[in-house]
Amino acid sequence: MTVALEKQEEMAQFKEEINSVVPSDYGCQILLEKTTIEAANDKSFPNDARLIWYIVDGVEHVDLTRCPKMSKLFDMYYDKYGKGAIQRIDFGYGTVNPKLWGDKPKEKKKKR
């Protein structure tokens, strides 16, 4: 009886390890997770960000993510949520150059 319980616990831990997908392993960065279109419709995000719609437990969610290749983005969400979860991938609304996004402007020194 205890052997069966140990195997069930091992399987539960194995499932958790599979679903724990790290975006940096795919070269991706999740900017907004499980958000709304209104929140993602911000021009201050980089212009290489993408919107991805997916379904988990019958509820549709939207994420705003950055990834160098769309195939890596698809692979990350496929590995995380499984077959049939991804509905569509579209461009985000950001307008900032990706090289400049997240950088703070330099402080200007006063001239004497």
Give a written overview of the molecule.
With 112 residues, the protein is an alpha+beta fold. Helices cover 30% and strands 26% of the residues. It has 3 helices and 4 strands. Strands 1-3-2-4 form a 4-stranded antiparallel sheet. The model has no long low-confidence stretch (mean pLDDT 85).
Summarize the structure.
The chain is α+β, with helices and mostly antiparallel strands. It has three helices and four strands, in the order H-E-H-E-E-H-E. The chain has a four-stranded antiparallel β-sheet with strand order 1-3-2-4.
Secondary structure blueprint with pairings:
Layout: H1 2-19, E1 29-35, H2 37-40, E2 49-56, E3 59-66, H3 70-81, E4 86-91
Antiparallel strand pairs: 1-3, 2-3, 2-4
